[in-house]
Prior knowledge:
The structure is a homodimer of 348-residue chains.
Chain A: E1 7-12, H1 17-28, E2 33-40, E3 48-51, E4 54-57, E5 59-60, E6 71-74, H2 78-90, E7 94-97, H3 113-116, E8 126-128, H4 132-148, E9 150-158, H5 166-180, H6 219-232, E10 238-242, E11 252-260, H7 267-276, E12 280-282, H8 294-297, E13 303-310, E14 317-324, H9 328-344
Parallel strand pairs in A: 1-2, 1-6, 2-5, 6-7, 7-8, 9-10, 12-13
Antiparallel strand pairs in A: 3-4, 9-11, 11-14, 13-14
Helix pairs in contact in A: 1-9, 4-6, 4-9
Amino acid sequence: xxxxxxxxxxxxxxxxxxxxxxxxxxxxxxxxxxxxxxxxxxxxxxxxxxxxxxxxxxxxxxxxxxxxxxxxxxxxxxxxxxxxxxxxxxxxxxxxxxxxxxxxxxxxxxxxxxxxxxxxxxxxxxxxxxxxxxxxxxxxxxxxxxxxxxxxxxxxxxxxxxxxxxxxxxxxxxxxxxxxxxxxxxxxxxxxxxxxxxxxxxxxxxxxxxxxxxxxxxxxxxxxxxxxxxxxxxxxxxxxxxxxxxxxxxxxxxxxxxxxxxxxxxxxxxxxxxxxxxxxxxxxxxxxxxxxxxxxxxxxxxxxxxxxxxxxxxxxxxxxxxxxxxxxxxxxxxxxxxxxxxxxxxxx
Amino acid sequence: xxxxxxxxxxxxxxxxxxxxxxxxxxxxxxxxxxxxxxxxxxxxxxxxxxxxxxxxxxxxxxxxxxxxxxxxxxxxxxxxxxxxxxxxxxxxxxxxxxxxxxxxxxxxxxxxxxxxxxxxxxxxxxxxxxxxxxxxxxxxxxxxxxxxxxxxxxxxxxxxxxxxxxxxxxxxxxxxxxxxxxxxxxxxxxxxxxxxxxxxxxxxxxxxxxxxxxxxxxxxxxxxxxxxxxxxxxxxxxxxxxxxxxxxxxxxxxxxxxxxxxxxxxxxxxxxxxxxxxxxxxxxxxxxxxxxxxxxxxxxxxxxxxxxxxxxxxxxxxxxxxxxxxxxxxxxxxxxxxxxxxxxxxxx
Lengths: 348, 348
């Protein structure tokens, strides 16, 4: 680092949906940047991007791009991270990787600062940013787990298209307009770019996010299951997920069922905990129709929780509705937040 | 009835979203009609409606409207049913009521023909048609319950706006167009017409369908919980629901978790059962991305099931994705189907 308190930052995938939000977040948070390097695949190299009133030219990411970089924020797909993150580390950079490439690597901390900030200390050059739908759920559930224990989660998700990138958002926009005009719905991106079949997302619901695995679950569902156990340090947690892509541009919502270990826990106790949890906002008053929605949470960094209620049959069971901007807390903000914790604690 | 095999039919709420589908379904099924009477509130009286190439004028429903009617299909709101269904019964009509007015009345059978057709026999003039989201779930789960027992259901729904009527569908259409044009989203119907607050549904998800109850659940959620127990004859069933309104025009989807009583049940056994169940179609092949969606099921009378898989932690737990046209099996078709069973069995 060039001075005591500023850092050379690289953003890999600077023109993507998450990369754009990373730049906005670095700017909003006034992150102490010395030099900023915007990197991408050769396809997007040469594009111009504004940051704090200055125009930057995006360069093609190569191993040499990471010379003198202190922190590299990766969000350009798993294959780019697999190829270039080790090169960045070799050159002394700390990598905060937003892809799934290293998340389950036992040598790589998988971090949601509100949950397991201390895991950052164990990094060996790479810190992984969890999957968007995982992050908001564990941020909401961690205070409950800490106070009352937790042995079971069943989650069904309501996920926005921006999680599949700018092309997917454009597909939703074009299909929606075509549908309203009485036209056909042409699908070439969703549910999964590169998978065999594509289905319309406009005014539809697709129960597939990422590719199917051998066990009949999608990779997105297995990410939620495996990442939650790793982040919360609960390998024995019973957890299952059903992940659904919906015609929303921004913010994922989740219908979450949890069973706590302690008996006689009340809804009010959960509301009190959620209300004072870091990074989490309680929006829960059925009497006045107060609950979070994707539109009400878009553009905000917090995780919003409402509809907290007890299961009618299971004394230790509770239902929650968890909503957050998938590009912010689900991706860009959580990555920048990790970088903030790294520099605040001198864990570089 | 005028001749041995045709019936005088009244449709109450003939201009509504469900009423229109009732007429289409009576026509598609070539229901044996002698005289058809189209009724509505005074607001819609005088409107012209086509049926089998003939124009009918909608009349205001009054107690006298039901003279000589054999079967009256009600779908004009709970207050209309409460006022006029007893008048229809008094005049000798059998009422099939699509509102929530009589569903939990112990003297009124609540019927999904694939599940509890025989309950029709106990009617005292009124048969209730269950809530849309309940119908498709119990149709899919009944064969599983019969063969393997069932002691627990946790469901999260993905529900279309047409369940809230034509005005709600129009609101989604107008908001969607406004959003795509960069305009504001004005909400005056959803989530619940007549409730205090209204929120935009376009590109959003609203975790409220019908009004909130004292216990923090919505009435829609309580309908799913209570109606399922009544239809399946399982008062001790553990069941909870989270109901969410989405920017879909037609068809509800449901992420359903069930626990069966029998041990060692396999996914293949469930697929075999679902595949041969009446009124239910298996669409389930992850390897070729086959699963039902709202758009693929719209306009069809069946219930479609996919994504059947075992819970990874609970030996007796399974997850399913259940989709059906909320205006057909969820309302109009189930009502007409009850009428068909009534006349086939001479249970009038």
